[in-house]
């Protein structure tokens, strides 16, 4: 009886402490548990099926702990926080297509970059500008063997004042987007600027213009 109780307690602790590993999620698998998700949008991933994760502590990536870090600066109303979006093909089918992660912990962001370089090797496109604490870093990979597109972006700002009065406080923002290769966006039909003539002109100049890989390429300075 004591052994049974001990096993039950162990299972409960494991269940409570378990985290979903984003690296092991399979593209097109259906998300079954939506309790920790709410419908949202993304300005960086122009797809319709975007879920915001409410409790980010329930997720990790490989051996990288994401965590619910936050930071606030003096005379600013906003509180900067880690955030995680899961991307699906539609809100009806909920087939997983990738994720978008934003981090404000620079060390965690650097862990991601080192991991991605080691895993995916030479990037398809990259950009770096480093000057003292100011950093602007972009990497883009297209890994055919894993069927992934990976966009890594890091940006350090020094125009903030910390709560203790440091006028050169650094805000480090890292964005990691990993999505299924081959995805394309659709022009917003409700935007009056997206006339058939303009869409045709865009596609005439680049037939692949609405593919995510092309959109991500264009987000990186040449």
TrEMBL record:
It comes from the Bacteria. Residues 1-20 form the signal peptide. Keywords: Signal. This is Lipoprotein.
């Amino acid at each position: 009886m004591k052994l049974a109780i001990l096993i039950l307690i162990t299972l409960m602790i494991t269940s409570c402490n378990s985290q979903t590993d984003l690296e092991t999620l399979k593209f097109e698998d259906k998300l079954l548990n939506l309790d920790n998700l709410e419908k949202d949008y993304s300005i960086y991933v122009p797809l319709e099926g975007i879920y915001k994760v409410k409790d980010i502590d329930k997720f990790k990536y490989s051996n990288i702990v994401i965590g619910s870090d936050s930071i606030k600066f003096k005379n600013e109303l906003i509180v900067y926080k880690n955030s995680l979006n899961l991307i699906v093909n539609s809100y009806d089918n909920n087939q997983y297509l990738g994720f978008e992660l934003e981090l404000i912990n620079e060390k965690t962001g650097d862990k991601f970059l080192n991991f991605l370089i080691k895993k995916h090797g030479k990037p398809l496109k990259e950009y770096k500008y480093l000057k003292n604490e100011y950093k602007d870093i972009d990497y883009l990979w297209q890994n055919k063997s894993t069927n992934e597109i990976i966009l890594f972006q890091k940006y350090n700002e020094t125009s903030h004042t910390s709560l203790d009065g440091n006028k050169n406080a650094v805000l480090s923002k890292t964005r990691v987007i990993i999505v299924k290769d081959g995805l394309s966006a659709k022009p917003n039909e409700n935007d009056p600027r997206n006339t058939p003539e303009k869409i045709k002109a865009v596609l005439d100049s680049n037939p692949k213009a609405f593919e995510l890989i092309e959109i991500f390429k264009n987000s990186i300075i040449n």
